[in-house]
Amino acid sequence: ANLTATGSITQNAAAYTALTAATEKNDVNLNLARTVQFTAGALATQRAVLVQAPTYAFTASSTLTDASTLLITGAPIAGAFNRATSTYALKIDGGTSVQGATTLIPANAYALYIAPPTGATNNYPLIVTGGASGFGTTSPSATLAVQGNALISGNITSVANLTATGTVTTANLAASASSTIDGLYVRLATTTYATTTDLVVT
Rounded mean pLDDT of the chain? Predict the structure, then answer.
C-alpha cells in the first residue's frame, strides 16, 4: 500500500555479521521494475522518483554556509580483509530505453542530465574539486582526460603550455608569448591568402 510521512524519515541500519558468501545484501531496495500504463494521450513529464527542494529561512539575517537537497558522504569504505577493486559514491548504469521489438524508440536517452541553477551570483552546473576526470576512459591520467575526439566550438585558452602529440587542425591559430617557439611546422591548405591571417605569433 502507500507509505506517507509528514515528518522526518530516519533509517538506522543494523550491523550484519557472517552473511552468506558471494550474495549481495541491500540496505535499501526501491524496486520500481514493473510496467506503468497510462491511457492514450500526451504526457509532458513522468518521474519515478521525485525529490523536491526545501526552502530554508531564518527569523533574522543569518548565514547558511552549505545547503544540499541531497548529500552522499562518500563511497563505501573498505573494511577488514576487503580487497575492493572499485568503490563508487554514486554509480549510474545507463540501462536500456526500450522494451520489446515493437516498442517505439525514444529520440534521446540520457544517463545523466544536468540543468544549471539560476538566480545566484554564480551558477555552476558542475564542479569537480580535484582528482582526474575521464571521458571514454576509466583510468584518466590528467585532470581532464578525453579518449577519443573532442569538439569545442568556442575558444581554448591556455595559461601554461599547450602540448599536442598528434595532429592539430585549426582554422585560425594565435599565440602570444615571450618565449621562443622551436620546431613549429605549419602546412597551409592553400597558398592564397584572403583578409585573414593563418598564423600569428607575437
Answer: 86
Q: Are strands 199-201 and 133-135 parallel, antiparallel or unpaired?
A: unpaired
- Residue 118's Cβ-count burial label (10 Å; 0-12, 13-18, 19+) is exposed
Phi, then psi, of 182 in degrees rounded to 5: -110, 150
Q: What value does the mean pLDDT take over residues 140-144? A: 94
- What is the number of other CB atoms lying within 10 angstroms of the CB of residue 133? 14
Question: pLDDT of 19-38, one tens digit each?
Answer: 999 999 999 999 999 999 99
pLDDT tens digits along 143-162: 999 999 888 888 888 777 77
**Residue 170 is placed in which grid cell?**
585549426
